[in-house]
Amino acid sequence: MDSSSLEMDLSNLPKANWWGDDYLYQVGGFWLLPQFIQSIYRVVKHFKPIPSDIILASYPKTGTTWLKSLVFSIIHRCSKHRLSTNHPHELIPTLEVQVYATQTIPCINTDHQSSRIFSTHIPYQLLSETLDSSECRVVYVTRNPKDTLVSTWHFVNKWDKARGDPWPLDVAIDKFCDGETPCGPYYDHVMGYKRLSLERPKNVFFVTYEELRTNPITHVKKLAEFLGCPFEGEDEEEQVQEVVNICSFEVLSNYEVNKSEDSPTWFQLPYNSFFRKGNIGDHTNYLNDVTIERIDALTREKFHSLGFMYGT
Ligand code: A3P
Q1: Looking at 87, 121, 189, 283, which residue is catalytic?
Q2: Mean of the per-residue pLDDT values for the chain?
Q3: What gap in Å lies between CA 229 and CA 207, rounded to an integer?
Q4: Average pLDDT in the 221-233 region?
Q5: Is residue 6 one of the residues assigned to a domain?
Q6: SS3 state at 50
Q7: Range 60-80 average pLDDT
Q8: Is residue 207 assigned to a domain?
Q9: Does 84 reside within a domain?
Q10: What is the distance between the alpha carbons of residues 121 and 142, in angstroms, rounded to a whole number?
Q11: What digits encode the pLDDT tens for the residues 93-122?
Q12: 44 and 126 in contact (C-beta within 8 Å)?
């Protein structure tokens, strides 16, 4: 990204149609929604993490909302009340969606004693200068590509525009495989942060949705240790269990604030669109065997061949 001008000029960027008459623009090898390009540009140019910062990074629909709840609960411990009355996306703002949404560069608290927690969907490849120059902690969550695709397809079809003109599943599959999705290619996004976690394990914690779902206690403990606030004391097990319980899909999705049909000021979809089913393997209800094999073959090529044995 050219950091010498205030706004990014979209006119010369490669464009790809991804749904109806909507286009994505390619920046540094990644496809971005036009409404977020300028704010992503501002984050890349102006955001200077301080060492105590925690950044939650993810490709969309891989468990961001859940990770926000878990990290908020781990850091603040007595968070049940806050989580029952605030949407997770309002407890931990997303850099390019909330913090840098307007042209005015935000004045963020730089008190090194406080823990600032942000999230982002910006690929590491676009944020490398920002993250490489900082000792901040990054937590990256990823999810099986087939469940990510199906979750994305449902999410996009909740947009107003989809009422009269739904995003067909076969188009969504092709776009996912071609990497032409918001913040895609998915595989490059994941590998960017996966490599970073191997290079800088003290600063980057990489976890999967499936690990959190199947073995939450172990991974929440590891996450807390990574964040520098391990569970301690005789009731350690109860404390971890409490965090896991208050952040479970069943509990969170039943709070009025998360069931709300209202849309926040910062996004075009209602609060409840971030909670759907929360299961592993829902793709089997939507993708046929041929599509599953097509995506698995891609996963073997993009992940397994690089030594990351995940996602099939
Ligand atoms: P599904 O569409 O498969 O149900 P993101 O937060 O990155 O947008 O991801 C949304 C996905 O995470 C959705 O998946 C959503 O239901 C699921 N999700 C949200 N909160 C969750 C929780 N507490 N536990 C497990 N999954 C959760």
Answers
A1: 121
A2: 93
A3: 18
A4: 96
A5: no
A6: coil
A7: 93
A8: yes
A9: yes
A10: 11
A11: 999 999 998 877 776 766 655 679 999 999
A12: yes
| pTM given for the model | 0.96
pLDDT (0 to 100) of residue 163: 79
CB 248 within 8 A of CB 84: no
Separation CA 151–CA 146 (nearest Å): 9
Residue 143 structural domain:
15-306
Q: Using a 6 Å CB cutoff, which residues line ligand 1?
A: 58, 60-66, 69, 147, 151, 154, 247-249, 252, 274-278, 282
Structural domain contains residue 286: yes
Question: Residue 58 is part of a domain; what is its CATH number?
Answer: 3.40.50.300
294 within 8 A of 265, measured Cβ to Cβ: no
How far is ligand 1, taken at its centre, from the CA of residue 112, in Å? 31
Alpha carbon of 64 to ligand 1 centroid (Å): 7
Q: Phi and psi of 164, rounded to 5°? A: -95, -15
Query: How far, in whole angstroms, is CA 202 from its chain's centroid?
Result: 20
- What's the CA gap between 227 and 230, in Å, rounded? 8
Buried b (16+ CB within 10 A) or exposed e, 194-211: bbbbeeeeebbbbbbbbe
pLDDT category at 1 given cuts 50, 70, 90 is: low
Count of domains forming the chain:
1
* Of 222, 273, 226, 216, nearest in space to 247 by CA: 216
